[in-house]
Amino acid sequence: MARELRVPRFLAALPAPVRWLALPLALTCTVVVLLGSWSAPAKIEVPEPAPKAAGYCRALAAALPQELLGHARKDPTPASPYVAAWASSPRTVLRCGVDRPEELNGPAAGDLSPTVNDVTWWQQKLDDGGYRFTSTMRKAYVEITVPSGAFTNPLDPVSALSDLVKANIP
């Protein structure tokens, strides 16, 4: 005994070619929605340092490693001598020539700042659980953003890069 295939009334009212395309169209829309919901890496703002600081930043960029603690370097596009990034997601980002953080003009200036290899870093805990470290007392400000979970200790990339900052930015 053959079972009769029942078509819902709202589909039965449509012409046959439209009914045949209903399922593929629904699947295509689902795929588009899923692909669209995956977020691309956050756009990195490229700093515009003063001419003297830009020279220091270019020297630092030439000295930066292609691998940082096991994470391959994957710079954002378009490439800039003022920005470097390692890993894909989450990624550790170094920006050179950033502006002096406004928070350093207030009570946060008295916060305890770690000194790593003779480079003092002012740290900020970010809302997403990561950290932002900004070098202080240098001719150019260098910012290292370490996302939550990228490293066991958020100071690891800072300590790996401090010698390069010290050697290239007086």
What's the structural blueprint in terms of helices and strands?
Elements: H1 9-12, H2 16-37, H3 51-63, E1 67-68, E2 71-72, E3 83-86, E4 92-98, E5 115-116, E6 119-125, E7 131-136, E8 141-146, H4 156-168
Main sheet attributes: strand count, strand direction, barrel closure:
6 strands, antiparallel
Described by the principal axes of the CA atoms, the overall outline is elongated
End-to-end Cα distance: 88 Å
Q: What are the segments in which pLDDT stays under 50 over at least 5 consecutive residues?
A: none
The fraction of residues in strands falls at 15-25%
Describe the oligomeric state of these chains in a short phrase: single chain
List keywords for this structure.
170 residues; alpha+beta; two-stranded antiparallel sheet; elongated
Tell me briefly what this model is:
The chain has 170 residues and is α+β, with helices and mostly antiparallel strands.
Could you explain the architecture of this structure?
The chain has helices at about 10, 15-35, 50-65, 155-170; strands at about 65-70, 70, 85, 90-100, 115, 120-125, 130-135, 140-145. It has about 170 residues and is of the alpha+beta class. β6 and β7 form a beta hairpin. α3 (about 50-65) packs across α4 (about 155-170). The protein is elongated and about 85 Å long. The relative contact order is 0.14. The model has no long low-confidence stretch (mean pLDDT about 85).
